[in-house]
Design goal:
Layout: E1 5-9, H1 16-24, E2 28-33, E3 46-49, H2 55-68, E4 73-76, H3 82-91, H4 99-105, H5 108-117, E5 125-128, H6 131-140, E6 145-149, E7 159-160, H7 167-175, E8 183-187, E9 192-200, E10 205-213, E11 230-232, H8 238-254, E12 260-269, E13 272-279, H9 287-296, H10 300-308, E14 325-331, E15 336-342, E16 353-358, E17 365-366, E18 377-383, H11 386-398, E19 401-404
Parallel strand pairs: 1-2, 1-4, 2-3
Antiparallel strand pairs: 5-8, 6-7, 6-8, 9-10, 9-12, 10-11, 11-14, 12-13, 14-18, 15-17, 15-19, 16-18
Helix pairs in contact: 2-3, 3-4, 6-7
The protein binds adenosine-5'-triphosphate and magnesium ion.
């Protein structure tokens, strides 16, 4: 029997392990990306050069490719492009997610309105039409607020309206990151921040991905909201895990999503989990490809690939089951021009080191850290306890010398 073909939208660096896995599963892999030198192209069987956001161009070229070699499934890898995925899968008559659900979940305001209507717990929110409107909301509500673009990602333009922050500045700063020039405001929810990644089938849900997001630098980077990795497994009671599964299951039901994965940003508020965001795709940041399987043994990438191909999966096979403690941290050098980036090659032999990627080199200019794309590297370590995994990450990071002319 000839190989099945999977179209993976995005050939970015974080997509590489997912493309590799699809190939290891014996699939023929077509990769689409707008960047002709995307690293994923190096291991693809066929390339489609089209921006991951350009659904028209992607379908046009996917139809051509499909004529030569039928495509059996479409998915994204570490890219927030559910609309393109849905547009292409619909166009080719393949399994996927409803186009309208993809549209709703890529507009933060539409998503919150939809969730509110369907009884999914979300923070208080409002659209904001201009600076005056924002100032009025600040005067009228007693709540701590956060402003964000409705259509951006990577925490770009996500700004807490702390007491010392000028709302007009925050409005204009956030606006720079909204392609459609639309912003919203939400109540900032105090509580544990959890990254989730779930598999939903016709009638079941399981959440192998549960990570305590590390926001130890909330003050250092304020008013921006910069996550510094996470720790798995998340420290949650069975009741809290069940509550998360219920929320994700309801999200899937109201969006008519089945046989797919859902990435969630959840905060555990005073009355249980609230949804900050639900994305109809696999996660980025090496969550699905590295930290989840390392910590739980759950091969969520395999599940996503099989479901994109329209195959039935046994969800029990992917249920979380504790394997080991895993710590992920990012590298945030001081702003300035880097004068030195040096890592002793022997650290790569450390038995607790699972991944170390440094994205910067001497001579690079490091900007002020205002969003997640400002990360200069990432590390993943394991340990017998959470503390040991964190200590291992810190020990290895402190042996790497990254100096900038700013003195960092
Ligand atoms: N209302 C809120 N209450 C508490 N935390 C929040 C709130 N809004 C955002 N955050 C935190 O800030 C992060 C970034 O916000 P958001 O997800 O809205 O932006 P984003 O651009 O999609 O970022 P990312 O791509 O990292 O998810 C959230 O994942 C969450 O940890
Ligand atoms: Mg988000």
């Amino acid at each position: 029997m000839s190989k099945k073909t999977l179209l993976i939208i995005s050939g970015g660096i974080e997509a590489v392990p997912i493309i590799k896995q699809a190939r290891d599963m014996g699939l023929r892999v077509v990769v689409s990306d707008g960047n002709p030198s995307a690293p994923g192209f190096e291991i693809a069987d066929e390339r489609i050069i089209a921006s991951t956001y350009d659904h028209e161009r992607t379908i046009e070229l996917a139809i051509e490719s499909n004529k030569k070699n039928p495509i059996h499934g479409v998915m994204a890898a570490a890219a927030d492009v559910p609309y393109t995925v849905s547009y292409v899968s619909n166009g080719l008559g393949l399994t996927g997610i409803p186009l309208e659900s993809a549209r709703i979940t890529t507009d933060k305001l539409a998503m919150k309105e939809f969730f509110k209507t369907h009884g999914i717990p979300v923070p208080w929110f409002s659209n904001i039409s201009n600076e005056e409107h924002l100032n009025k909301l600040l005067r009228e509500t007693e709540k701590n607020l956060i402003v964000k673009p409705v259509d951006s990602r990577g925490a770009r333009g996500v700004i807490r309206l702390l007491k010392n922050i000028d709302p007009d500045w925050a409005y204009n700063e956030s606006l720079k990151h909204s392609p459609s020039k639309r912003l919203m405001v939400e109540q900032w929810i105090e509580g544990r921040q959890i990254s989730t990644e779930s598999i939903v089938t016709e009638d079941d849900v399981t959440t192998p991905g549960l990570s305590d997001r590390n926001y130890q630098y909330l003050e250092r980077f304020a008013p921006f909201v910069i996550e510094d990795g996470g720790d798995l497994p998340a420290e949650l009671s069975q009741d809290e895990k069940d509550a998360i599964d219920r929320v994700i299951s309801n999200v899937a039901r109201c969006l008519s999503v089945k046989n797919w994965t859902i990435k969630g940003d959840i905060v555990i508020g005073a009355n249980g989990p609230l949804v900050i965001e639900a994305a109809l795709r696999l996660s980025g940041g090496y969550f699905c490809s590295h930290t989840i399987p390392l910590s739980t043994g759950s091969n969520i990438v395999e599940a996503a690939i099989l479901m994109a191909l329209g195959e039935k999966i046994d969800i029990k096979k992917y249920a979380p089951c504790f394997k080991q403690h895993v710590c992920q941290r990012f590298i945030f050098p001081e702003p300035g021009v880097l004068t030195e980036v040096k890592a002793d090659p022997r650290i790569y032999n450390d038995k607790n080191l699972e991944m170390l990627n440094i994205y910067v080199k001497a001579g690079d200019a490091i900007p002020k850290i205002v969003s997640h794309p400002c990360r200069a590297g990432t590390i993943v370590t394991t340990g017998k306890t959470r503390k040991e995994a964190i200590d291992n990450a810190q020990r290895i990071l402190s042996s790497i010398s990254i100096k900038s002319d700013f003195g960092g």
